Amino acid sequence: MINIENHIGRISISENYISEIVRHAVCDCFGVADVCSTNTFRSAVSAITRGRLCKRRGVVIRTEDNGITIDLHIKVSYGTNIRANVENIIHKVSFTVEETAGIHVSSVNVFVDDMKE
After folding, report:
1. N or C: which end of the chain has fewer CB within 10 A?
2. E-strand spans in 1-117?
3. How far apart are CA 104 and CA 95, in angstroms?
4. What b/e string do you get for 71-94 counting C-beta neighbours within 10 Å, with b at 16 or more?
5. Straight-line distance from the first to the last Cα atom of the chain, in angstroms, rounded to the nearest whole number
6. Distance CA 82, CA 41 (A)
7. How far apart are CA 116 and CA 96, in angstroms?
8. Rounded distance, CA 105 to CA 88, Å?
9. 53: pLDDT confidence band, cut at 50, 70 and 90?
10. Which residues contact 62 (CB under 8 A, 6 or more apart)?
11. What is the pLDDT of residue 45?
């Protein structure tokens, strides 16, 4: 859970909610084929169950003092400009999370793990 306190009170947001926001934002970006799993076991389970058991695949959220850090593992389409896509993903994810949940995103780390032909 991510806890935010302001002058009105305390807000608790689950990491699964933030992960789904991030996944939807990433999948809407041009050139992104999929969000990959972070390790081999989760990748195998996700492939067998079609993502029903490993909901947070490819998105790791860490809370820090000044906000959250998001690690993304993605698969890109062949022939796209990876650097431009990654810059677009970083901007879109941080903007979407800050606007939707009101949580400051201190950094977004994008790892390109695979390429779809």
Report:
1. C
2. 2-5, 10-13, 32-35, 59-64, 67-77, 105-116
3. 9
4. bbbbebeeeeeeeebbebbbebbb
5. 38
6. 26
7. 26
8. 15
9. very low
10. 68, 69, 71
11. 52
Answer for the pair 105, 71: CB distance below 8 angstroms, yes or no: no
Q: How far apart (Å, rounded) are the C-alpha atoms in residues 38 and 3?
A: 25
What confidence score (pLDDT) does residue 103 get? 87
- C-alpha 9: how far from chain center: 27
Q: What is the dihedral of CA 28, 86, 98, 2, to 10 degrees?
A: 100
- Residue 29: CB atoms within 10 A of its CB come to 17
Q: Domains in the chain, start-ordered, CATH in brackets? A: 2-116 (3.30.70.1350)
How is residue 66 written in tokens? Answer: 């000044």
pLDDT (0 to 100) of residue 89: 92
